[in-house]
Amino acid sequence: MGLRINNIAFTLVFFLLMINTSSGQRKQEVSTVDLQDFSIMTPVLASITNATGWALQDNGTWFSENNKIPFADARSVASRPDGHEILGQDNFISIDIHRIMIDDDQYNVLVRKYNDGEFEFPYLQRNWRSYQSLDYYVFKSEKLLEMLPDPVPWNTMYLVDLRCFHSGKIKNFNKVVFLGSSLSLSNYSVGVVENFKQTRTGYEEQIIRAIQEKKQGIKINDRNLILALFPIKSGGKEMIRFKIINAYLNENLLRMQTSPDNWRDLFTRTFYEMPFNAYRDFVQAARSHYIDYKNAATAYDRHLSWGILRYQMGDYAGALEAFNKALEENPSTTDFMIYAYRGNTLSKMGMHSDAVAEFDKAILLRPTRMVDYPNWIRNYFNRGVAKYYLNNTEGACEDWKKAYDFGYGSANEYLSTMCPRKYRLP
């Protein structure tokens, strides 16, 4: 029996092929993949969007605000000029985790988005302009294991040194750039603005470009990130306090910063706090995509794991090569997932006839474990997608109907919009 990778949420990574029907035409949309030694950055895998920031006030009381560590003296907030008070000592809009491959290693990217701004006249502190910025930190995925130890060290503070491969800041990441002009024309008439080509460059692309430049030696990174964590269990409640500490990749400084003498008081004056179960879900959602292929028990397991990893990252040619090597190691495997992944991979490459043949093999290997059943059903749906691209609408609808009858409810959308009336639900 082939490998069952328990730490992978197949329901998340066994992607469905997308169908574009807006034009009424079938389009074989073959993904264009950059097959360099690192991949595109994934969408957000996990996110924190709500935490309470606490600050000990000068009068000895504690004051809190949502997603913001307030100033130490709340009475002074009203006297702060313009919109500067919205920043507090620290704030965030969201803390997100993405994933990226660099060479053959798995990395994650922690992105902290926050409210930011500046004065047009800093010396006079006049004309405050608000915008949103982000800090990003690229670190090896193994660090996710340190962020949520097993067992949880309740009522004990601990630090996680991410040892960032690269980090940086993107200021005002939502701004619109007008190509061919250095001036923002947003305050001018619409007619003038429409004469210029505008673009909103995604911050993901900017982070990928920065990683490329780091690998090429164009950029030098000496920034680091330390997470201070304090899980608390008291009176039946489970919470976690945390702080995000910017640091530098200097061994002497790191030894000083991570020494208990220096961080025992980290949570005595300011911190963020959130329910522990929300933090646990945040880390586990990111960890579920980590594949420990280097410690696979057999050559078959190693090639299969590597193929799944390449598939997730969009390297379909690399994935197919790995799956082929896995089958060479164990040609008699009864694991339907390798054929399911081969089917999806071939479909992503536009080879839909070959994909149908792989889905056929996967469907014949009906699993005996109920936990595998939902993923096995998806083979009917995905085979229907491949048939649709082959102009076999009747066969596609038959497969989608089987998928629905077996319990895959999402197939109903395709039955109701792309299939003859006889396949639609009453």
Explain the overall architecture:
By secondary structure, this protein is an alpha+beta fold. Helix content is 33%, strand content 24%. It folds into two domains: 10-36 and 292-423, Serine Threonine Protein Phosphatase 5, Tetratricopeptide repeat (Alpha Horseshoe); 46-287, no CATH class. A six-stranded antiparallel beta sheet has the order 3-2-15-14-13-9. α12 (373-389) runs antiparallel to α13. It starts with 9 loop residues before the first helix and ends in an 8-residue tail after the last helix.
Strands in their spatial order, largest beta sheet: 3-2-15-14-13-9
The radius of gyration over CA amounts to 26 Å
How far apart the termini lie comes to 41 Å
Q: Kindly report the average pLDDT value.
A: 81
Taken together, the total number of domains comes to 2
- Beta percentage is 15-25%
User: How many runs of DSSP E, i.e. beta strands?
Assistant: 15
The helix/strand series, from N terminus to C terminus, equals HEEEEEEEEHEEEHEHEEHHEHHHHHHHH
The dominant shape is elongated
What structural class do helix, strand and pairing data support? alpha+beta
Oligomeric composition of the shown chains: single chain
What portion of residues is helical? 25-40%
Give the number of helices.
14
The main β sheet shows up as: 6 strands, antiparallel
Q: Uncertain regions: pLDDT < 50 for 5+ in a row?
A: 1-39, 177-200
